[in-house]
Write a structure and sequence with these properties.
about 325 residues, alpha/beta, Rossmann fold, seven-stranded parallel β-sheet, three-stranded mixed β-sheet
Length: about 325
Amino acid sequence: MEERMKDLEGKKVCVTGASGFVASWLVKRLLLSGYRVIGTVRDPDDENRVGHLRRLEGAPERLELVQADLLKEGSFDDAVFGCHGVFHLASPVLGTPKSDPKVEILQPAIDGTLNVLRSCKRNPSLRRVVLTSSSSTVRIRADLGGAAPLDESSWSSEELCEKLQIWYALSKTLAEKAAWRFCEESGIDLVTVMPSFVIGPSLPAALSSTASDVVGLLKGEKERFEWHGRMGYVHIDDVALSQILVYENQSARGRYLCSSTVVDVDELVAILSSRYPSLPIPKTLLKYERPHYDLDVSKLKGLGMTFRSIEEMFDDCVQSLTLQGLLSPYRY
């Protein structure tokens, strides 16, 4: 028993924004792997938002939910203290800015990331931080269309993001760059994971904007996906497994793209409408022409990661949404 307790102490980690779509799945995987998890949430007593975490296997013994405010300096000090690893997924709620996007969206994303990292710097037990970024930090570029796939050396153009008002991509790009600068100056071992569009079962009852878009598409609502053009897709469980992989692998360094496949949106709806003929999925969606690109995920595969197919990720997603009563029963 004493050896087991020592082992668990060596596997104490913090997950910020633990009740979110991707973070919830990461918490699930960490618990299944024997980790002791400190999850930060806005309100640990809000059962509507955190109840699904408390019901996870291993949660009664090894999950502690604590309150933290992303934009409050020092708010994460207690949560990360004593943790060997910190998985940072929390991010401000992003929407259409009412007046000034730099004040409403960009600065909060940067400040929130730096607040967490400052707490990490004050934690003498820290071994590594895994920051969940986004493939949008790589693919918003004016020079897309080349034969070579994009890899981790690519960065989205801040000027183009601002010109096109792609505030999500710009916020993720600026926040990740700020994290790299801070960690290099502070001697923090940082690794970033950059998932493409995440598909899969939603553990929280309240759907994220990503999951809501997928539900809309499967119900025939064209406007949800018309803007996608060409996009990478990845299973939510593969994102969680990738985050744990880069945390546990001592040789992991730098940035890691995390994506199963990249397809044009019309190719996607063709696959889905053929696979789920009873669902009212649109037959065509391509409204905006987007340049061709692919993503090179060989760096993550080099650590041993394998990805599920687009059919598998949507099968799991559709099955989950059907069980939740959000979709009518379908047939293959």
